[in-house]
Known about the structure:
Layout: H1 2-24, H2 33-49, H3 54-63, H4 69-72, E1 75-81, E2 84-90, E3 99-103, H5 117-127, E4 130-134, H6 146-160, E5 168-173, H7 175-190, E6 197-201, H8 213-216, H9 225-236, E7 259-264, H10 270-282, E8 287-292, H11 307-331
Parallel strand pairs: 3-4, 3-5, 5-6, 6-7, 7-8
Antiparallel strand pairs: 1-2, 2-4
Amino acid sequence: MGTLSTLATLIRASLGTAVRRMKRGPLRPGWSFAYEATVAFMKANNERLYLRPAPEQREEVERLARTTSALRRVHREEVSAGGVPSVWFSPPERSGDAVVLYLHGGAYVMGSPRTHGDLLARLALGTGLRVLAPDYRLAPEHPFPAQLEDTLAVYRWLLSSGVSPRRVVFAGDSAGGGLALSTLVAARDQGTPLPAGAVVIAPWVDLECGGASVERNAAYDWGDKAMLLHWAGWFLGGAPAREPLASPLHADLRGLPPLFVHVGSAELQYDDGVRITEKARAGGVQAHLEVWPEMVHDFQTFGEGFPESVRGTTKLCEHLQRVLLDAERQEGPGIGGPP
Length: 339
């Protein structure tokens, strides 16, 4: 039944997109039919699912995962990282011994290394580095701070295994981007050595969803404020929405390593990306904001069939390598050395 419902949603979204474009043209000037239909499908699928029990949402999202050409080119290995189930994505030829610690998105309710496998594989191939993806606990069964605890455990495991913190770069998308920033803050406060930096995609850093773009871009993106607030409630589990380690927009960001923030101009989280970048800069953090015109949330995950996704992933790889190279220049040789 789930597969048939998903297929019916896809057909309706595609037909609706075709009719709308014939009458009024593309929803955004630069959108192809394939891109617009994909966004329409994802939004319709979210509208169909978000009020259902969390296990059903996860099952539907997992069903959409496919084995892609990028996934066939990397080696995947399951590992218990500090007691947290995780997956290594390793390219056939490594360019160094640095590690990308990637935190998947999914509103803290769904998602896994499997749902994000294609992107993780493309990051490994594009950087020549190993990518470690924790399968952290999800809400509502495991509300905040379970996800933060799991990520800290994985990071400490990496350090205890002999990986230098300066050879680690955090990355993540959406909720995972927010979680990456929260983990930096928590690690700093606990005295844990910080990684070289972080590269995040559309970080969800304000669980009150107070940015104007949440409503301004609702007509274009594949979610809306009601969905975000529903998932945020599950994640918070009674914690205040302004808790700094849940909504890092309200955290003290001073002393954090360099940040690269990627956002689409047509996405709900656009203002989250802008505001967290501005706050980081105000706190003395080296922060770069990469705005992608006309792009929606997490467009980098759309796959190699979309030129926009390919360009976005290429830039992510450049920024991951930049963070590590800058850390190497500051600390001396080693980060980009042979495995």
